[in-house]
Amino acid sequence: MTVMSQINEFLCLVFYAALLLVTLATLTATFINYHLFPLDTDNLAWSNAWLLAYVIDYYGVCLCFCGVIVATEAVWWTAMLWSCSCLVVGSPACCLYIFLWITKEGGTLRLERSALAMEMLAAAAAAANHASNEQIHVTPILETQKYQSPASNKTGSKRHHDDHRHTRPPQRHQHHNHKSRHSSRSRSHSRSRGHDVERAVVL
To answer: Which residues are listed as membrane-spanning (predicted)?
Structure first.
C-alpha cells in the first residue's frame, strides 16, 4: 500500500465519520423535538423539521453509495458522472447503475475486501478451526469413566465378589478345630483324675 492510498483511505474515514455524526445528530434532534407518531401533518414546524431530516438522511445514504461508485469505476469522469446523477436524480440513477453493473459489466453486489483484511480473516478462521478441532479430540477421563458399558461394570463387581469369597477365612474349619482341641483337653483331664483315684486306692 502506497502513501497516497493510505492518505486517501484516511480522508475517506474522516469524511464518513463526520457524515455519520451529522446524520445521527440531525435524526436524534428531530426525534426528540418532533415526535414521529402521531403524525402532525397540520403543524408546519413539524413538517419542515421532518422534511429536513429526511433530506439529510437521503444524502447521507447517497454519499455512501457514491463512495462505492468512485472506488469501483476505473475512469474518474465516469465515476463523477454517476455520482452526480445519483445525487441529483436520486433513486432512478442508482437503480440504473446497479442494473448496468450487473448486466453489462458482469459485476456483483458483493463488496471486495483488501488483501490485508483477507489475510487477517483467513488467519482468524484458521485459529478458530484449530481450536474447535482440539476441543473435539480432547476427551475428559471422567466422561470416559461415566459412560462405561454395564457389562464391564458387572464383570468387575463379580470379580470383586469372587476375590472376597476366596480371601474369606475358613470359619467352619476353625470351629471344628476348636471343638476337637476342647475334647482332647477334657479327655486328658479325665485321664489325670483317673490316675489320681488309682493312687489313692493303692495307698
So the answer is: 49-72, 79-102
Q: Tell me the three state secondary structure of residue 110.
A: coil
Chain segment 117-164, per-residue pLDDT in tens = 667 777 888 888 777 777 766 555 555 555 555 555 555 555 555 555
Residues 33-41 have a mean pLDDT of 88
Q: Is the pTM of this model over 0.90?
A: no
State the virtual CA torsion across 83, 87, 92, 96 in degrees, nearest 10: 0
Contact 19, 61 (CB under 8 A): no
User: Which residues, in sequence order, are CB contacts of 67 under 8 Å at separation 6+?
Assistant: 12, 16
Cα four-point dihedral sign 63, 67, 73, 79: positive
Query: How many angstroms separate the CA atoms of 89 and 161, rounded?
Result: 93
97 and 86 Cβ atoms separated by less than 8 Å:
yes
Contact 63, 19 (CB under 8 A): yes
**DSSP three-state, residue 109:** coil
DSSP 151-201: HHHHHHHHHHHHHHHHTS--HHHHHHHHHHHHHHHHHHHHHHHHHHHHHHH
Maximum alpha-carbon separation in the chain? 157
Omega cis (within 30) before 140: no
